[in-house]
Design a protein that fits this description.
2 domains; alpha/beta; binds alpha-D-glucopyranose; Rossmann fold
Length: 481
């Protein structure tokens, strides 16, 4: 390891809790920076995201305006305001421009490419204005990929940017930022000699550009780091990843142990710990009430909380749920929104089996926590899963995960062995509905054996899913740059 320590880091991404988030990326940007700071006190770590409409007034009230300037995006001259606030020792910046970010939803506009190109240009331009030139620019997912490309293709020729290193993290390779070449210079401000940097499969691919330009590429679990180098998981990028394999490291995500804590969580009716799990059953009957299910103590509640997208394993669930709820004495609850076909399917199932299936088509953080606490079994049969946070949160709340052995699910959940009582969940390998059903059956059988279930649940609750060890791995990676 080298002697020079990295002290100044700027995280760039499209979302961060508690300000604006739609998924796991937001959780990571909301909790990893503070964990890094916890692991190295002298670290000056800052985060920048867009100033979306959805950021609440109570968060806005804590912010201060830092500066404003004009960003030139090709022929456009756009206003840019920078706001900031402190959270757990970390400075968060917000890039303000109402034309780009005053929208009813964070993603999905026709001009997302232009919106995030503006954001990325603004991030590099803001550095002299805020007087902060980081040692490491750490960009997350395609929306911030252009910061890596701009740094290496344009800004590094200026003194202050010349020593800056770039790290790029892939949270999900399925979203790459793919555009036609007609906007290479007009929107992305790239020159024709930059074309080969971003070109992939006849298109502009921003993720590919960041992979090529970054000094270090990370992804959110060691297993996913291997998987994305294979055709099955790479969404087409395996060649470029295999060529850059020396840059790749997989570091598992953690969860925020203060926010997710069954001992103190204000969203729960009753609190409990790994040592004393008794009150969890009260949270269970509350949950059954919420979903209009019979309050039966001994019937296991199987839960899913997820974006309703087929790669989360819903093909399997759809194939087998009806058989499962009619053949087994179980209750099934689901919270999530997403693909219309899946929403329709689950509404139909809830209507048909009102005592066994409970469905809420919503994104609701309080209810999510009540489910993590009140359920017995947590199902995550993903087709691919870069890391997955829900299986870790469920474990922390003593809800035993049943997962497919893929990505970070494989790294975090080890099958329970009744002989030596090791393992913290139930797993299955093949992406097949009956293999999933078999895993659920194994979980239900264990659930009926009170002694075994208690030791499995205790293993789940006591597995360390905090950021502690991963924060140290990130710091080592930065120091080695
Ligand atoms: C993405 C991935 C998820 C991961 C999260 C945070 O949402 O799909 O598996 O946990 O990013 O890295």
């Amino acid at each position: 390891m080298s002697d020079t320590k990295i002290n100044k880091i700027l995280f760039v991404g499209s979302e961060a809790t508690p300000f604006a988030a739609t998924g796991g990326l937001g959780d990571v940007l909301g909790s990893l920076p503070a964990a890094l700071k916890g692991a190295r006190e002298e670290l000056d770590i800052r985060v920048v995201i867009p100033m979306y409409t959805s950021i609440s007034d109570s968060e806005r009230e804590k912010m201060e305006k830092v500066c404003e300037f004009t960003v030139n995006l090709s022929w456009r001259q756009q206003y840019c305001g920078i706001w900031s606030c402190e959270k757990n020792g970390v400075t968060y910046y917000f890039v303000d421009n109402e034309y780009y970010f005053k929208r009813s939803s964070m993603y999905g506009s026709f001009d997302d490419g232009e919106r995030y190109a503006f954001f990325c240009k603004a991030v590099l331009e803001m550095m002299p204005h805020i007087g902060f030139f980081p040692d490491v620019l750490h960009a997350h997912d395609w929306q911030s990929a252009l910061t890596v490309i701009y740094l290496k293709r344009k800004y590094r020729y200026f003194e202050e940017y010349s020593k800056m290193k770039a790290v790029y993290t892939i949270h999900n390779i399925e979203y790459q930022g793919i555009y036609g070449f007609e906007i290479l210079s007009d929107v992305f401000c790239l020159d024709s000699w930059d074309r080969y940097i971003v070109e992939y499969d006849g298109c502009i691919n921003l993720t590919k550009g960041a992979i090529v330009c970054c000094d270090k590429l990370t992804t959110v679990s060691p297993n996913y780091a291997n998987e994305i180098q294979t055709e099955y998981y790479s969404s087409g990028l395996h060649y470029i990843l295999a060529m850059n394999r020396d840059k790749i490291t997989g570091i598992i995500n953690g969860i925020d142990y203060d926010n997710y804590n069954p001992e103190t969580d204000p969203e729960l009716r009753r609190h409990y710990t790994a040592e004393n799990q008794l009150q969890k059953s009260v949270d269970k009957s509350e949950l059954q009430k919420t979903f209009g299910l019979p309050e039966k103590r001994d019937v296991p509640v199987i839960a899913m909380i997820s974006r309703l997208a087929s790669h989360k394993g819903f093909d399997l669930v759809k194939r087998i749920l009806e058989e499962m709820v009619t053949c087994e004495d179980i209750q099934f609850v689901l919270l999530g929104t997403g693909e219309m076909e899946l929403e329709d399917y689950f509404s139909y199932m809830a209507g048909k089996y009102p005592d066994r299936v409970g469905v809420k088509l919503a994104f609701n953080k309080s209810l999510a926590k009540q489910i993590y606490a009140g359920a017995d079994i947590f199902l995550m049969p993903s087709k691919s899963e870069p890391c997955g946070l829900a299986q870790m949160i469920a474990s922390r709340y003593g809800t035993v995960p049943v997962v497919r052995e893929t990505g970070g699910l494989y790294d975090t959940i080890k099958p329970y062995n009744p002989e030596d009582k090791s393992g913290n969940g139930i797993t299955f390998k093949t992406y097949n509905a009956h293999d999933m059903y078999d895993a659920v059956r194994r979980a239900v059988a264990l659930y009926k054996n009170k002694r075994q279930w208690k030791s499995l649940r205790t293993n789940a609750m006591t597995t360390d899913f905090s950021w502690n060890s991963s924060a140290v791995k990130y710091l080592e990676m930065y120091d080695n740059l």
